[in-house]
Write a structure and sequence with these properties.
- This protein is of the alpha/beta class.
- It is built from ten helices and 14 strands.
- The strands form four sheets. An eight-stranded parallel β-barrel has the order 3-4-5-8-9-10-11-14, surrounded by four helices. A two-stranded antiparallel sheet has the order 1-2.
- Strand 10, helix 6 and strand 11 form a beta-alpha-beta unit.
- The two termini are about 15 Å apart.
Length: about 325
């Protein structure tokens, strides 16, 4: 079993390595049922006990697949999070594929951060997953609907938390300034930050991470591979950085980091997974995985840790923010 950490002041704990459900929804490329089932089974066998998903991922496909695995496990044995803010409305796919994921367009997404929308979203997700409760609920991608999410969506989540229907609540977003405002103005237990506290992006050190430390809020670091550019020892060919093609300048920086990693006998993905957890407010990382071999490889690299000297050498080369905590081996 992997090490667990508690989220904020809640009683909810997550394994430091969590399973991100985006790829099982067909992100970038389709994933068949057998491959998805094998990936989830491998995650469980390797000791991962935190699973994160969303209605958005494959318009419900990720939730259904993760629910299928977890229905066979004791409810107290795992931590489950999903997200709110988009309702899924059935439609005739008419032969079309979804715009965001490689799945048939059987539903359309409707933004809704109202109280009624949040409650309906939670009920729909429970039905898709076959569970009676979630451990964590997060406002999802609320950047363009932030005031409504803050005014109406968050109070609905806080109401569910007060009722004991969910253990921890917060938001999952890209925008660090908005997450910082959320942390300072309301009372979340956790925020999930995508792609903004990684080996390549240290912007959360400006405002969000200090605010979380001050307010006792935990961070779950997602997209630690920045959409793939940090996922292999040496990126080659067409790779993505934050969902866009990586630039030549960025790839030069990545290879410079890889040089330092190799001098310490470790790899780029090892360092990418270890880095966020050096910060005391980061409770865990969430890594999207789509196959059993990928799961086993990531868990092995995660458990291997990295030498403490790596971080000082990255700083010396100007590749790591001086404000980042100087932890020991992970």
């Amino acid at each position: 079993m992997l090490t667990t950490k508690r989220l904020g002041r809640s009683s909810v704990a997550v394994t430091e390595l969590g399973f991100g459900g985006g790829p099982l929804g067909g992100l970038f490329t389709p994933v068949d049922e057998d491959t998805a089932a094998a990936a989830l089974a491998a995650a469980w066998e390797c000791g991962i006990r935190y699973f994160d998903t969303s209605p958005h991922y494959g318009i419900g496909q990720s939730e259904r697949r993760i629910g299928s695995l977890l229905r066979g496990q004791p409810r107290a044995a795992y931590t489950l999070s999903t997200k709110v803010g988009r309702l899924l409305i059935p439609q005739d796919p008419a032969g079309r594929m979804d715009e965001a994921f490689q799945v048939p367009a059987t539903h359309r997404r409707v933004w809704d951060f109202s109280r009624d929308g949040i409650m309906r979203s939670v009920e729909d997700s429970m039905a898709r997953m076959g569970v009676e409760r979630f451990d964590v609920l997060l406002l999802h991608d609320a950047e363009q609907h932030f005031e409504a999410a803050l005014r109406d969506g968050y109070p609905a989540l806080a109401e569910l938390r007060a009722q004991g229907a969910v253990g921890a609540v917060g938001a999952g977003m890209y925008d660090t300034a908005m997450l910082t405002r959320l942390v300072r103005e309301i009372d979340p237990d956790v925020v999930m930050l995508s792609g903004h506290y990684t080996l390549l992006n240290h912007s959360a050190l400006d405002d969000l991470l200090p605010a979380c430390a001050e307010r006792g809020v935990s961070v779950l670091a997602a997209s630690v591979f920045n959409s793939g550019v940090l996922a292999t020892p040496r990126p080659a060919g067409s790779v993505r950085f934050d969902y866009q093609p990586a630039t030549a300048e960025l790839l030069r920086r990545v290879h410079a980091i890889a040089d330092v990693c190799e001098s310490h006998g470790c790899t780029l993905p090892q360092a990418a997974m270890a880095f966020p957890l050096l910060h005391p407010v980061v409770a865990g990382i969430v890594v999207g995985m789509r196959s059993a071999p990928e799961v086993r490889q990531n868990v092995a690299l995660f458990e291997a840790g990295v030498p403490a000297g790596l971080w000082s050498d990255l700083r010396a080369e100007g590749l790591l923010d001086e404000r980042a905590p100087r932890g020991g081996a992970v």
